[in-house]
Amino acid sequence: xxxxxxxxxxxxxxxxxxxxxxxxxxxxxxxxxxxxxxxxxxxxxxxxxxxxxxxxxxxxxxxxxxxxxxxxxxxxxxxxxxxxxxxxxxxxxxxxxxxxxxxxxxxxxxxxxxxxxxxxxxxxxxxxxxxxxxxxxxxxxxxxxxxxxxxxxxxxxxxxxxxxxxxxxxxxxxxxxxxxxxxxxxxxxxxxxxxxxxxxxxxxxxxxxxxxxxxxxxxxxxxxxxxxxxxxxxxxxxxxxxxxxxxxxxxxxxxxxxxxxxxxxxxxxxxxxxxxxxxxxxxxxxxxxxxxxxxxxxxxxxxxxxxxxxxxxxxxxxxxxxxxxxxxxxxxxxxxxxxxxxxxxxxxxxxxxxxxxxxxxxxxxxxxxxxxxxxxxxxxxxxxxxxxxxxxxxxxxxxxxxxxxxxxxxxxxxxxxxxxxxxxxxxxxxxxxxxxxxxxxxxxxxxxxxxxxxxxxxxxxxxxxxxxxxxxxxxxxxxxxxxxxxxxxxxxxxxxxxxxxxxxxxxxxxxxxxxxxxxxxxxxxxxxxxxxxxxxxxxxxxxxxxxxxxxxxxxxxxxxxxxxxxxxxxxxxxxxxxxxxxxxxxxxxxxxxxxxxxxxxxx
Length: 603
Ligand SMILES: NC(=O)C1=CN([C@@H]2O[C@H](COP(=O)(O)OP(=O)(O)OC[C@H]3O[C@@H](n4cnc5c(N)ncnc54)[C@H](O)[C@@H]3O)[C@@H](O)[C@H]2O)C=CC1
Ligand SMILES: CC(=O)C(=O)O
Ligand SMILES: [Mg+2]
What we know:
- By secondary structure, this protein is α/β, with parallel strands linked by helices.
- The strands form four sheets. A seven-stranded mixed β-sheet has the order 12-11-10-13-14-15-18, sandwiched between helices.
- The longest helix is centred in the C-terminal third of the chain and has 27 residues, at 570-596.
- The protein starts with a strand and ends in a 7-residue tail after the last helix.
- The structure holds 1,4-dihydronicotinamide adenine dinucleotide, pyruvic acid and magnesium ion.
- Magnesium ion is lined by residues 263-264, 284-285.
């Protein structure tokens, strides 16, 4: 989206930024001119803009006459939002608001995280993706197609903003737990990047939502006349790999410092292994999820009173998220003093064919082999319940996409065999959650240590209010991205990912500990993201992959403040632009008043 750049001499140009006020040197004169990047074309029509500034911008008379305050503006927006009868109506309203007035959208998001996040992210983004081709109104990112092979670098040139700091890229092939949604998956990169901006203060114009149309296995979509993607079947893994080689190189060519987050790919292990050494990239579903769940498990293990070596964890789901989480917890157990071999033995992974064992008779996908059991005496356990009876777990994790898979019987068994059973139904959206918060509480008489992927409301049981945790990678990916960008890391190392999860428990307040919360409250997500970024930067420095070396000299306290100072804040952003514009407008008004007698201005 192009925006207007106004220089002091009043000449308006179009620029690709919606950035803030910057100071600009002209090579010729050596003079310093302030250059004001106006937030966005439509933000020129923000009703809080003062009259002198409207005159300066040429928007006087185009906005209702009396300037608003933000409080009134917010009240109006929230009233409009809340008047929508359906969640999808709210999603559409918020998308329009973001496109109409980006700073206002982020001001409202950051002021009302608890209300707005579920509407732009899980669970509502799931429904939006299912209906994307039906509700589509405007481009908010890039769509690349398989037809662009050989020409990707040229297509990327069409992105109108000069500077991109981070992209989230999907092919839509595994959107939340909803399956292959093809190009309709675009809601995910947009939603994730909205959280990068809202939670970690990465400037909105520095984000690029990217969806790659590599065909879809979703037959219903291919036959739907409204579907906006190609009608071809999914390309082969070899074709996908060659396409990605070209894409990665093209992204780096146009934006050499770009951070690339892979999101919601059906089998993301090969691309992570292939690109992680040469690009500042990570996979959120494997690594972000691993880190966030490790962060919650640290507290849960402590509260359970059971030593790490005595934990037995059953995972329903052995895909990117399941394996990513198990690997990360192995790393935590090793940090706690166990050998890797002993730590690995604490895990039993179950997929759609039952317990993952070495002698099951099928060819296991590479990523499952590490955790495959060899101590099953040739017995194959087909169902989760059989595995629960066999293992008597202290922890059950759901990353299976199977809503309701943690049945009453399974939850009650967890309650019987554990003082504090750890129950994490992590599949998204809510409809795919392996159980609800209420079910976990009721079936364990309130003793469950609980976190879910999508949000649940607090629940009152026998006179006491219980608070669910949200074990969602949104607690770490914004800070991983921010830390990587700010220290200009050349890659995202394992230690940086580990550090992001380790940062989380340091942010839990005494009050939150009292409530047995496993994650800090979402309302403090900006501070949490700054802490995550601090840990990520420190780990990058230890691994020697950072490029901004002067940050190494700063104390933790100073660095955390520096990080916060570098976060986009939609509130101060608008004010500083306003103030700067105000003073420019006064200057201009003064200049104009000198000539006004001869040549009265028409405002
Ligand atoms: N809470 C969070 O932050 C995150 C949650 N997730 C959720 O985790 C879920 C899985 O994601 P991925 O691992 O990336 O998907 P995936 O497709 O890689 O893996 C799914 C796994 O579930 C297994 N599965 C499918 N049907 C099953 C059945 N009936 N019984 C037992 N196992 C079954 C599959 O065999 C596979 O191992 C999704 O719902 C996703 O939304 C993913 C990433 C982050
Ligand atoms: C949260 C997330 O990344 C997922 O459900 O895929
Ligand atoms: Mg995901």
